From TrEMBL:
<keyword id="KW-0802">TPR repeat</keyword>
<feature type="domain" description="HTH cro/C1-type">
    <location>
        <begin position="7"/>
        <end position="60"/>
    </location>
</feature>
<dbReference type="InterPro" id="IPR019734">
    <property type="entry name" value="TPR_rpt"/>
</dbReference>
<dbReference type="GO" id="GO:0005737">
    <property type="term" value="C:cytoplasm"/>
</dbReference>
<dbReference type="Pfam" id="PF13424">
    <property type="entry name" value="TPR_12"/>
</dbReference>
<dbReference type="InterPro" id="IPR051476">
    <property type="entry name" value="Bac_ResReg_Asp_Phosphatase"/>
</dbReference>
<protein>
    <submittedName>
        <fullName>Tetratricopeptide repeat-containing protein</fullName>
    </submittedName>
</protein>
<comment type="similarity">
    <text>Belongs to the Rap family.</text>
</comment>
<keyword id="KW-0677">Repeat</keyword>
<dbReference type="InterPro" id="IPR001387">
    <property type="entry name" value="Cro/C1-type_HTH"/>
</dbReference>
<dbReference type="InterPro" id="IPR010982">
    <property type="entry name" value="Lambda_DNA-bd_dom_sf"/>
</dbReference>
<feature type="repeat" description="TPR">
    <location>
        <begin position="285"/>
        <end position="318"/>
    </location>
</feature>
<dbReference type="Pfam" id="PF13560">
    <property type="entry name" value="HTH_31"/>
</dbReference>
<keyword id="KW-0963">Cytoplasm</keyword>
<dbReference type="InterPro" id="IPR011990">
    <property type="entry name" value="TPR-like_helical_dom_sf"/>
</dbReference>
<dbReference type="GO" id="GO:0003677">
    <property type="term" value="F:DNA binding"/>
</dbReference>
Amino acid sequence: MEVGERLRQIRIHKGFTQSELVEGICSVTYISRIEGGKVKPSGRFIREVADKLGVLPSLIIESDNEQAELEVAKIYDSYKQGTPLDDSTQSFLGMTALENHSPKTFFQIYTMLIEHASSQENPAIQAEEYVRRSENLLPSEPEPHDRDVALDYYRALSRFYYSKQQFEKAYRYEKIIEKHLDEDCPGIDRARNYFNLALTRTQLDDDADLELAFHYGSQALDIFRQTDHQKGVADCLTTLSIITHRMGEFENALEYLNELDDEALGYLSVSEDETDGHAKLTKRAVIDYNYGRIYQKMGDAEQALVYFEKSLELDTLAQNEKFTTPVLTRLAELYAEQKNWERTEYYLNHAFDVAEQYDLPGSKVLLLHKQAHLHKVKGDEPAYEKEMQKAIQLASDWSFTVDVKEISTELADHYYEVRAYKMAAKYYRLALERD
């Protein structure tokens, strides 16, 4: 990389415009010509802009790959010990990612950048760019000597895709992790992998997916219990209750939830860095939500409402608004069954607002589907068709294959019933293309 291009990359990563950087140093024309490779910068210019950028002059003048890789390794080790990335370190990693390095160094760089970007308040664009660049650059079959850092990178991708509700991609990376875990790897690592495999498969809608999810969840629970890992046990019991509920085994689902008593949740308050109890509130909210789902399936709407409202209240207290779309949707369903349209609209609109604010495409697809059904119940078929088409388009944009197939088939059936055969054929074809 030439000096001018290196300077441009450092300036961009540091957040300076050309005019801001050279104010009191030189003209904008001069730095433009340097960055364009038309003139060679003077030593005085390099020293002054380096000082303003907060970097060593040598970083601008030339790239030392060996030294850069040593520095990345040092940052990575510190990061793994819990040291967060500051702005200058993030800028260094972003610039270093544009140079030529070993796969190991790139695994380290992109693990940190993806996780850091994903943890920010509005992570979508930057995190997605790091994911796109790294997937184009890095292999899914790492060399044996890069295995450990590669697994950290795949875990970062799995978490990213799960947070974006792209569960098939999250599952794919967990399978890569499973493949490359050593037989003698720590039991906790394998248990977490099994748990994540269960979690991702649970989000898909095929019966075989649920059976596989139950298999992985049970294996994870056994390992967590053997190692007395209380958090892992609690997470597995919660997930297994969801799986058995989805399988229609409601009594088993209740048994798993009943194991999650206050004693089993006590570790959450103890392990928190703060004493506000947010982690315990969050776990309690998840448990109450799943009690609500089970009672809803068992036809006990009154009990379901009690648990859903408790879950929503707890998530609100824990400041977890991002995770409230499922319970808001369930509340809307229950009030729709009671033909309380005002409350139904209230909870659906609230859920739409949350999904829009936090960019949750999977939730948006589900909510559009629910909204469409509400229009159909009211006899507004054009609005039903419009919302269904929007749901299909969004699901297609995000490659939510199962949703595309399910909603397309339903819409095709509707068009067939109203004798709109051309439209029915269009959506049957779309559904078949997803097989």
